[in-house]
Amino acid sequence: MTHPLPTFEDVLEAGNRIQNYVIETPVLQSEALNKIAGIDLHIKAECLQETGSFKLRGATNRLLQIPIEDRSAGVVAYSSGNHAQGIARVSKRLGMPAIILMPSDAPQVKVDGVLADGAEVRHYDRNSESREEIAEELARERGAIIVPSYNDAMIVAGQGTCGLEFAKQIELADKSLDHLICCASGGGLIGGIALALEGKSPNTKVWAAEPVEHDDWIRSLEAGEIRPNAPGTRSVCDALLIQEPGSITWPIGARFFSGGYGVTDAQVFEAMRLACRHLKVVVEPGGAAALAAALFCLPENVKGSTVGVVLTGGNVDMDLYTDVLAGRKD
Amino acid sequence: MTHPLPTFEDVLEAGNRIQNYVIETPVLQSEALNKIAGIDLHIKAECLQETGSFKLRGATNRLLQIPIEDRSAGVVAYSSGNHAQGIARVSKRLGMPAIILMPSDAPQVKVDGVLADGAEVRHYDRNSESREEIAEELARERGAIIVPSYNDAMIVAGQGTCGLEFAKQIELADKSLDHLICCASGGGLIGGIALALEGKSPNTKVWAAEPVEHDDWIRSLEAGEIRPNAPGTRSVCDALLIQEPGSITWPIGARFFSGGYGVTDAQVFEAMRLACRHLKVVVEPGGAAALAAALFCLPENVKGSTVGVVLTGGNVDMDLYTDVLAGRKD
């Protein structure tokens, strides 16, 4: 089965389609963070999106395109949690049943978010079970539609609306971004943003942020072909544990990404603390990866430039968050 | 000395004057919070303003009106911390020296914010010293201008720009606010917002939120005349400890406020936790008072209505914040 690759026009269409379903998240600035990073940082706080992450954008764009007569059978999705919450919220809005496969070690706050929107949750073991197979079985049983979390043109286009907004907000501030850093897992968000910037800000270089030991995008971009992570690699960034770039997102990345930065758990925790202190926003580990890269990983020749980062999500369990803020995690 | 009362036109002028110096803070929504409160809640996250509170607005409006030839002598301000940070930031931007009187028990995060912007900090004892007298002495010595934290027409007008933005954002969402709840201390913000809504949304009722044992506005509004707090009353809301309504803010409140709600420390802590969990924003105790009132204090006849609240600041010491999130404070 071949997938059509999404385009800048798909992102524009998605922007029109979903604008009444998502909020325009603010772009924050902090002199304290600029000083630490040595750059002019513009921070898109997508953690303030409803459901606590950007995933609402792609889910809305995808589900709105399911014909009304096909909606009653519902949707099936698998996700570590943020896509799950996006799908659950949009399904509720559109009156569709939803069943979500979540790994048994998903953060409780994400499971609770899905349940609060009335979706059904089925747990699976991240290491021993295939979520794709379980999803296909469930979809067959129910006649439901599987909504992938990133490897889908309309999901990518929906996430890209975050980039459209960001470009507009930066333009309104009479600036232009030299660089944009966004975390990469499946690559739906950063891929969609790259498409948006290709149309709206073609001189902006796009960089992936990844956990340092889960750096499939960085190694794939260097090699010019997909290089999966070793099985079983771990990171505190529960939202960034996809094994390799997708068949739709990889060609976008290969064409548009300039490279990537690997961040350690310790850098992610420090970025979460600094976001709390200086930006007053709550960011989950994966959501802080791009900020960590901007603060701690940039080479000298980037200093002084204008850099955009996306804080992609804020769904962190309170126990972990208080440990991080109290400095008990590093 | 008589003070001119600020008007709706002053707020409009302030909006034009300061628009390039402040960010338009987002209005957030949460289905989970709507469910708890039984209302349609629209939450203006002013804690995301630069310096972590709305105070940047009034400080900018006031200092921009100091003639350039008078700026070199600098300014003197007294504040528990948020006004201090607003003044320090604007002074730095305008190249003015600033000295700030802060109570010796001010949160360290607020002191650090002032120092980071290069202002000088002088501590005083909240219970035994008069900050007004110390400020006047310093101003005389240096020929500097005292910038009050709330009892000043241009400060009130500047804070009111938060209300202008809020009204515009609500209108864009095709809604209208039945009620607006904002914390009241000196009354500069809520007073300015009331002026803005008088012009932009005259059917919105404006309510004050206050610590339950520091409820000078509530008692004053009931009595129809100023009723100060008893000396020495305490609250965890360090930003809301002004003793009585000001000579400029009181007539605004007496005319435009419908009444108020007293909130307990426990309600404030729970509102801080819920803002973290469901809105992904960091709110200081005083900044959470209005949300606490909306969640826990509304009478039955308000249920089902559309209510705006302002989260006014996010400058909370990390130790206290982690204690609150961990449930060690109630």
Describe what this molecule looks like in 3D.
2 copies of one chain form a homodimer. By secondary structure, chain A is of the alpha/beta class. Chain A folds into 2 domains: 8-53 and 154-325, Rossmann fold; 56-151, Rossmann fold (3-Layer(aba) Sandwich), CATH 3.40.50.1100. Chain A is 43% helix and 15% strand. Chain A is built from 13 helices and 10 strands. Chain A has helices at residues 8-18, 31-37, 55-63, 82-94, 108-116, 131-142, 153-172, 188-200, 216-223, 249-256, 265-279, 289-296, 318-325; strands spanning 27-28, 40-45, 75-78, 98-103, 120-124, 145-146, 179-183, 205-211, 257-263, 306-311. A 6-stranded mixed beta sheet of chain A has the order 1-2-10-7-8-9, sandwiched between helices. In chain A, strands 5-4-3-6 form a 4-stranded parallel beta sheet, sandwiched between helices. In chain A, helix 4 links the parallel strand 3 (75-78) and strand 4. In chain A, helix 3 (55-63) crosses helix 7, helix 4 (82-94) runs parallel beside helix 5 and helix 11 (265-279) crosses helix 12 (289-296). The relative contact order of chain A is 0.17. At the A-B interface, strand 1, helix 11 and helix 13 of A face strand 1, helix 11 and helix 13 of B.
Approximate strand percentage of chain A = 15-25%
Total individual domains of chain A: 2
Mean pLDDT of chain A: 95
User: Radius of gyration of chain A, rounded?
Assistant: 18 Å
Q: Would you identify the regions of chain A where 5 or more consecutive residues have pLDDT less than 50?
A: none
Judged by helices, strands and strand pairing, the structural class of chain A is alpha/beta
Q: Any guess at the CATH architecture of the largest domain in chain A?
A: 3-Layer(aba) Sandwich
**Helical content class of chain A:** 40-55%
The largest sheet of chain A is:
6 strands, mixed
Strand arrangement in the largest pleated sheet of chain A? 1-2-10-7-8-9
CATH class category name of the largest domain in chain A: Alpha Beta
What's the helix-strand series of chain A? HEHEHEHEHEHEHEHEHHEHHEH
Distance between the termini of chain A: 44 Å
User: What is the number of helical segments of chain A per DSSP (H or I, 4+ residues)?
Assistant: 13
Largest interchain contact: A-B, 33 and 33 residues
Multimeric organization: homodimer
Shape of chain A: globular
Q: Classify the fold: give the CATH topology of the largest domain in chain A.
A: Rossmann fold
Number of strands of chain A: 10
